[in-house]
Input
Amino acid sequence: MQGHGHGYPPRPAGRPAEGTLIALRVLFITTAVVSCSLLAWVPMLRLAIVTRKPVDWFLFCATVVANVGMLVFAGLSAPGDEEITDAVGYTILGWITVVMVGTITYYVMAETRHYERLKSGGGAAAGYGLPPQPPVAGYGYPPGGAAANPYARPVQHPPAPRQPPSRSGPQPQPQPSAGGPAPGPVSGHEPNRRIDQVRAELDELSDLLRREPRPDGGDR
Output
C-alpha cells in the first residue's frame, strides 16, 4: 500500500479528483449552452445521481418538462409555414435564457456544496441519505485515542507483600531454671566479681584455719 506524501491528505471516499470535477463541470455546462438549454437536463441528471436528493430529482424533472413545454409552445405559435412573430421569439428567447442560466447556476452551486461537505468530513454516504460514517484511521493509528479491545485480558498486578504485625507488647523474659539462678547478662565486670568472690572465700578459709586449735593445745 502506497502512502500519501507529506502535506497531501488522502482524498475522501466518493470524491473525484479536483481536475476531474472541473472537467466534468465544463463539459456539462458546454452541453447546456450549445444546445440552447435543450440539453440542460443533462447536468441536472448528473447532479441528481450524485447527491440522490429528492429535490434534485424534482428539479431534473422540472427541467425536462420546461424544455418540452418550450418546444410545444414554439410549434403552436408558428403552425405551418408561418413566421414566428417578435413577441413569440422574445418569449422563447427568455424561456431559453431562464432555463439555461438557472440550470447551470444551480448545478454548479449544488455540486460544489456537496463535495465541500464530503471534504470537510461529512462522509461519502452523507449525500446518499445514509448516516455519516466516522473517519477511518490510517496505517494502524486509532482516531482520537486507542479503542478498548473486548478480547484483551485484564492486566493482573501482583499482590502487595503483607507486613508482619508489629509486636508492641513487652518482650517475654527468660525464666530461671530450677537448678539454679538464671544466668545474668555477661558483662565486662563478671571476671572481677568472681576474683573478689574467690578472694573472699580464701579469706574466710584462712580465718577458719586460724581459729582451729593446734594439737599442742594452742591456737595457730
The chain is about 50% helix and 0% strand. The CA atoms of residues 200 and 206 lie 10 Å apart. Residues 1-7, 123-129 have pLDDT under 50 and may be disordered.
